[in-house]
């Protein structure tokens, strides 16, 4: 290693991946190599970052179980982000793939909910439209109308009803031991978004979520009505689609509209 830059890169690899540093740091008087001190400090800092980014999980899992999970994640997914704020983006998927590290499968959904809420808070700002913004749209344009959602809007498919657990944790005073309800297996969706500086979330049944997901994917209003017809029949399709649109406007989910080409 002839240059300082090469030495710095080797040092970084050795710390973050536990690779051999090639004698870059040596032990003193028979003590373990000093490199281990840096490797340990790196791991401790990333575990602490996961605690900050997933504040609810340690409360539910307990410190020991969470630290075991966190250390395994750090080893498998060294941080790739300039900001430690985004470290942990793959933790829910990692938990789903390593059931032995997760005491209950519902914790995967809890982690996904928590990460979505943090992402919503950091999302770009936007001013939602209201029903008045649709008043000028000509009747013949409605079938081709496409909706754009705020950047903070996330729709998560959920397998467990973890929302009661979340509510219970938010209502507990610091230092109190929470009494957490047992999660119930329930297929549904979780809608997460931000209003101003406040995060919001709401549980949706599958039919409601399917309509919203189609809109988020760029389906026009005509396609939404077709989807509503498969759910409620042709006679109720338009009413169901309009009610869904009204709820999105009331929640402040929509950033704008456009007429598809």
End-to-end Cα distance: 59 Å
Low-confidence stretches: 27-32
Task: Indicate how many domains the architecture comprises.
Answer: 2
The share of residues in helices is 40-55%
Largest sheet: 3 strands, antiparallel
What report would you give on this structure?
- The structure is a single chain.
- The chain has 261 residues and is an alpha+beta fold.
- It has two domains: 1-103, no CATH class; 125-261, no CATH class.
- Helix content is 48%, strand content 15%.
- The protein contains ten helices and five strands, in the order ααααααββαββαααβ.
- The protein has helices spanning 4-17, 35-53, 56-61, 63-76, 91-97, 106-122, 163-170, 206-216, 221-232, 234-251; strands at residues 145-149, 154-161, 184-195, 198-204, 254-259.
- The strands form two sheets. Strands 2-3-4 form a three-stranded antiparallel beta sheet, with helices on both faces.
- α8 (206-216) runs antiparallel to α9 (221-232).
- The protein is elongated.
- The N and C termini lie far apart (59 Å).
């Amino acid at each position: 290693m002839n240059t300082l830059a090469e030495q710095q890169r080797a040092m970084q690899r050795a710390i973050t991946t536990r690779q051999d540093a090639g004698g870059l740091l040596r032990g003193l008087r028979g003590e373990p190599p000093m490199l281990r001190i840096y490797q340990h400090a790196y791991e401790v800092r990333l575990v602490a970052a996961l605690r900050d980014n997933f504040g609810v999980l340690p409360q539910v899992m307990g410190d020991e179980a969470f630290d075991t999970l966190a250390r395994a994640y750090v080893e498998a997914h060294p941080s790739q982000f300039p900001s430690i704020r985004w470290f942990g983006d793959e933790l829910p998927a990692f938990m789903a793939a390593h059931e032995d590290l997760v005491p209950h499968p519902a914790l995967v959904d809890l982690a996904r909910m928590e990460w979505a809420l943090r992402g919503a808070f950091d999302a770009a700002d936007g001013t939602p439209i209201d029903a008045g913004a649709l008043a000028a749209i000509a009747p013949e344009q409605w079938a081709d109308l496409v909706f754009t959602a705020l950047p903070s809007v996330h729709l998560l498919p959920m397998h467990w009803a973890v929302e009661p657990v979340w509510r219970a944790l938010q209502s507990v005073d610091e230092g109190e031991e929470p009494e957490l309800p047992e999660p119930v297996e329930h297929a549904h969706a979780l809608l997460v978004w931000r209003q101003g500086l406040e995060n919001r979330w709401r549980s949706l049944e599958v039919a409601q979520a399917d309509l919203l997901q189609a809109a988020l994917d760029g389906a026009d209003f005509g396609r939404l009505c077709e989807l509503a017809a498969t759910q409620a029949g042709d006679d109720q399709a338009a009413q169901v689609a309009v009610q869904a649109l009204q709820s999105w406007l009331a929640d402040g989910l929509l950033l704008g509209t456009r007429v598809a080409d």
